[in-house]
Amino acid sequence: MENKAGEGKQCIPLLTPYKMGNFQLSHRVVLAPLTRQRSYGNVPQPHAILYYSQRTTKGGLLIAEATVISDTAQGYKDTPGIWTKEQVEAWKPIVNAVHAKGGIFFSQIWHVGRVSNKDFQPNGQDPISSTDKPLKPQIHADGAVAQFKPPRRLTIDEIPQIVNDFRLAARNAIEAGFDGVEIHGAHGYLIDQFMKDQVNDRTDQYGGSLENRCRFALEIVEAVVNEIGADRVGIRLSPFANYMDSRDSNPSALGLYMVESLNKHGIAYCHMIEPRMKTAWEKFECPESLVLMRKAFKGTFMAGGGYDRGDGNKAVVEDRADLVAYGRLFLANPDLPRRFELDAPLNKYNRETFYTSDPVVGYTDYPFLENTA
Ligand SMILES: Cc1cc2nc3c(=O)[nH]c(=O)nc-3n(C[C@H](O)[C@H](O)[C@H](O)COP(=O)(O)O)c2cc1C
Predict the structure, then answer these.
(1) Which of 8, 18, 203, 267 falls between 20 and 30 A from 86, CA-CA?
(2) Which one of 29, 30, 35 would you pick to mutate in the ligand 1 pocket, going by the greatest count of ligand atoms within 8 A of its CB?
(3) Transmembrane ranges (predicted)?
């Protein structure tokens, strides 16, 4: 590092450079994928240019908000898509803005499975899943209770179509200019609904054994790798999480099976949610850890969930993660890496505006350090 600020960064583990395959990252503070529900009619909007470029640093890795891969994949209002030409075109200026500032930008590709209802489905059809077991009503961040229609269990013949939708979404992401994709295999959405034994009740080759439950996820990985190249593919997994009634009786075995299988594909990174994030919003002390999975995985390992500055530095020093993803802190602090560098105070996030649709409020109006009185 040539400059003075650079020398200082060497002392802060999170701010040391890291080479992720072909990507030279200048630090390890990653923007976690954050759904913001401001892509009206599933089309990314120009206000996202400012939002993402605010959070871009030269050589920093950003993961875009979960992005819907097809017309059956949506479960929340105004989440962006990447299956139509219009959506791909709308992403381009956003990706260009991130690249103009030297950022590395991955798209998180997403199918919600049964976390949907007829309002979001083509022709009001039932949502699809690994199962026909309904999801219990869920309480949203704003306190509203979301109800779900019982899903329709995918037949074996339909599964290749969904795998193909992930492949096409990855191709579209590259067409839009993204550097790669993160397959959303976490948080109780479709891929997780196949992996977790408390949801998946199939008796065919996609249910039962670990090998069978992980087959769908790994078919998607293979298809996406074949389409865009392994060096552009990451995956997010949350074996320990219970969101959306998606629980597994042996999360360590599930996580280990997945990372060992992923090793065969040589993907860029595996992104795992810390076991302490048993629910979406709270941290719990727990004896489990990701260390076994981190050790077993041969690529870049990214950890996320409940990290602060000290904790993230510790994870890097102790070699428990190569990269650390920050969600709520990065949402509220567009200049988070800079604040970590200076050990500056942080803005507090406002939960009430996480998912509101205003193009500015709670979105691009969190102050930078220079502007904080
Ligand atoms: C507003 C909001 C939106 C989120 N959207 C996504 C998403 O689109 N995809 C995803 O994998 N996780 C999503 N998450 C989870 C975050 O990426 C992250 O894992 C979680 O907030 C825990 O990390 P943190 O303690 O650093 O915030 C979201 C979280 C929040 C607060």
Answers:
(1) 267
(2) 35
(3) none
Measured between alpha carbons, how far is 135 from 147 in angstroms, rounded to an integer?
Answer: 8
User: Rounded to two decimals, what is the model's pTM?
Assistant: 0.96
C-alpha angle 235/47/139, rounded to 5°? 55
Does the annotation count 189 as an active-site position?
A: yes
15 φ/ψ angles, rounded to the nearest 5 degrees? -105, 20
Catalytic residue, chosen from 18, 52, 76, 189, is 189
Please list, in sequence order, all residues whose beta carbon lies within 8 angstroms of the beta carbon of residue 227, skipping any fewer than 6 positions away.
167, 170, 171
The residue contributing the CA closest to ligand 1 atom 28 is 34
The finding on whether 328 has its CB within 6 A of some atom of ligand 1 is yes
Cα 155 to middle of ligand 1, angstroms: 31
82, 95 Cβ separation under 8 angstroms: no
- Is residue 11 within 8 Å of 340, Cβ to Cβ? no
Determine the residue of 278, 328, 354 to mutate for testing ligand 1's pocket, defined as the one with the most ligand atoms within 8 A of the Cβ atom.
Answer: 328
